């Protein structure tokens, strides 16, 4: 962890390049071992449930086979592009498979459902999103948890927001226009707004965020990157209804059980904050539920087994 509280990019890239230049044959020889481990795991039903959630593909999935084939590359031909973290995170598990298998690795923010089966970081929380198959990508940025030692009741009776603004983040503009300068909200942008340059302030560390009872977790290009570490803290995430999901399975989160939900126009924000300040037991119950939810992602072997199960389903359906 660096002073900002975020994961070290240097450590991540050193580990990733070392893995990349290790012969993949060593990993491929272990695939059957790990798949058998998953099959015999005492929590196999749970592992399977999560794998099925991420990869909903079946032999009857609706897509053009010819269009899919035209966009695919073999694993061994996948290039390290400008989206290096997506490549490294996908190949952490794809290296266990025959490198002649074909796939689509659709790197970047994907706020839409893919037209052909592809490996993605995120997808919309909608029906019929089968073609977007989720792996834990760009996880050095998104999958971050904290050890918060400050109790909720010791924190400031305020909500805090720091984040970029932009054309694809209109919800954040709506929030800022209503709540900048409010005594219960510390709100500022971390980039310059042409319309409101006065909104910009320097970035804060994660530790500085944790002085507040409530942390705004607002979706941007896709998911809010702070939601995971906020839910692992002793503060409470506040957001309108979520529309995007990642490996964190945001689509299974329950409003006012795992986080505090507010209206899309944020008109009820002050009312919701005051309610939980006046009902600390309910606030602390949300924090406990959030911690219980986060715990399922902290078993590294379990996460590896699920990732391999997801890719096996993807390759079995698409490469048959």
Describe the fold and architecture:
It is a single chain. The protein is an alpha/beta fold and 320 residues long. The protein is built from 13 helices and eleven strands. The chain has a five-stranded parallel sheet with strand order 7-6-8-9-11. A two-stranded antiparallel sheet has the order 1-2. The chain has a two-stranded parallel ribbon with strand order 3-5. α1 crosses α6, α3 packs across α13 and α4 packs across α13. The model has no long low-confidence stretch (mean pLDDT 95).
Major sheet details = 5 strands, parallel
Spans of at least 5 consecutive residues whose pLDDT stays below 50 are none
Strand content: 5-15%
Radius of gyration: 21 Å
Shape: globular
Query: Cα distance, first to last residue?
Result: 43 Å
Question: How are the secondary structure elements laid out?
Answer:
Layout: H1 9-20, H2 25-28, H3 31-39, H4 44-54, H5 65-71, E1 73-74, H6 84-94, E2 102-103, E3 118-120, E4 123-124, E5 132-134, H7 139-142, E6 156-163, H8 170-179, E7 185-189, H9 206-209, E8 212-216, H10 227-231, E9 236-239, E10 244-245, E11 260-261, H11 269-278, H12 280-295, H13 300-318
Parallel strand pairs: 3-5, 6-7, 6-8, 8-9, 9-11
Antiparallel strand pairs: 1-2, 4-10
């Amino acid at each position: 962890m660096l002073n900002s509280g975020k994961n070290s990019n240097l450590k991540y890239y050193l580990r990733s390049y070392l893995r990349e230049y290790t012969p993949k044959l060593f990993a491929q020889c272990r695939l059957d071992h790990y798949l058998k481990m998953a099959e015999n795991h005492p929590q196999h039903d749970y592992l399977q449930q999560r794998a099925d959630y991420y990869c909903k593909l079946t032999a009857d999935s609706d897509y053009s086979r010819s269009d899919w084939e035209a966009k695919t590359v073999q694993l061994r031909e996948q290039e390290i592009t400008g989206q290096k973290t997506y490549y490294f995170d996908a190949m952490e598990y794809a290296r266990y498979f025959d490198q002649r298998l074909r796939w689509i690795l659709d790197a970047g923010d994907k706020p839409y459902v893919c037209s052909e089966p592809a490996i993605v970081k995120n997808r919309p929380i909608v029906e019929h999103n089968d073609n977007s198959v989720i792996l834990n990508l760009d996880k050095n940025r998104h999958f971050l948890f904290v050890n918060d030692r400050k109790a909720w009741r010791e924190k400031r009776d305020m909500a805090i927001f720091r984040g970029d603004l932009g054309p694809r983040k209109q919800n954040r503009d709506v929030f800022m226009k209503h709540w900048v300068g409010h005594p219960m909200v510390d709100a500022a942008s971390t980039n310059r707004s042409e319309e409101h340059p006065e909104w910009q302030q320097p970035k804060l560390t994660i530790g500085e965020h944790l002085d507040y009872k409530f942390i705004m977790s607002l979706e941007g290009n896709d998911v809010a990157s702070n939601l995971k570490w906020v839910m692992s803290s002793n503060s409470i995430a506040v957001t309108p209804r979520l529309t995007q999901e990642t490996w964190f399975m945001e689509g299974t989160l329950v409003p006012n059980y795992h986080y505090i939900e507010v209206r899309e126009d944020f008109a009820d924000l002050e009312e919701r904050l005051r309610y939980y300040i006046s009902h600390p037991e309910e606030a602390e119950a949300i924090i406990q539920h959030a911690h219980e939810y986060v715990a399922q992602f902290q078993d590294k072997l379990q996460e590896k087994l699920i990732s391999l199960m997801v890719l096996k389903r993807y390759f079995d359906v698409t490469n048959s």
